Structures are given as structure tokens and as C-alpha cells.
Amino acid sequence: MTMQETLTLLPEWLIWWFNWLIFAVAVLPLALLIWPQSRKVGVIAVAASILTGAAVYGMFRQMGYVKLLGLPHLLIWGPLAFYLFRKQAKDAMPIAARWIIRVILVTLLISLAFDVVDVLRYILGERTPLGAEA
Fold first, then answer.
1. In whole numbers, what is the pLDDT of the chain averaged over residues?
2. Which of 8, 62, 92, 116 is most deeply packed, by most CB within 10 A?
């Protein structure tokens, strides 16, 4: 199955979450390019999202839709979340950029919570790919 076909097997709320997640981590950081003070943050966030997406897609092609797909999120978005937390507190950052960073950060933290659970479930033996039964 392709990734798109596999995603159709997920509950509707999770599909909505994935759509929000893609918007918040891949599109919203582009708004940070507006202000000189937040451009570096925007570029780093977009680069991290591209790298994460490539890693997840590569893992999916090798393993299918398994719980371990959360690992690239943990390895890349974990440090990104720490970086964003520090940057949103800078006085020189425009208020609109701070709020955009905060929305991205909250989204990342929610996703990372899911990812920690998923990776632990994989480590504990839940390894059957979604859609393998179909």
C-alpha cells in the first residue's frame, strides 16, 4: 500500500490532525520569513520539516506504517521544539512571529507526545504495519 492509501485507514480525527500538523510545521513557518528577526527560525523549521518528512517517507517505504515512524519526529522535532521555545522568548522577536512560533511549538509538542507513545509501543513489540491485514 502507498502512504496515501494507508492514511485512509486511519480514524477521521487522526487524518484531521495530520492535515493540521502538515500545515503547522511545513506551511506556517514560511510566515516567519516576513520578519528579519524570525527568518532564521523559519528556515530552520522548514528544513527540519523537510528532513523529517523525507526520513518518515523513507522508513515507510522500508517498513510500512509502523509505530516506529515517530522516531524521526523525536530525533529532529525534539531539538527543534527546544530551539523554538528559546526563540519565542526573545525580546527582539516581533509579537506576531512569537505567536506563530508558539502555535508551531504547541503542535510539535502534541505530536511528540503521540510519537513517544508510538515508539515505546513499537519497542514493546507492536510491530504490525497498519494495513497489513488488508
1. 94
2. 116
Q: Are 24 and 104 in contact (CB under 8 A)?
A: yes
Residue 134 has pLDDT above 70, yes or no: no
Burial class, 97, CB count within 10 angstroms (exposed 0-12 / middle 13-18 / buried 19+): buried
Give me the residue label for grid cell 527582539.
Answer: 92
Reported as a pLDDT band with limits 50, 70 and 90, residue 93 is: very high
Sign of CA dihedral 77, 78, 81, 86: negative
Contacts 24+ apart (CB under 8 A), 14-18: none
C-alpha to C-alpha distance for 118 and 124, rounded to whole angstroms: 10
C-beta separation of 9 from 130 below 8 A: yes
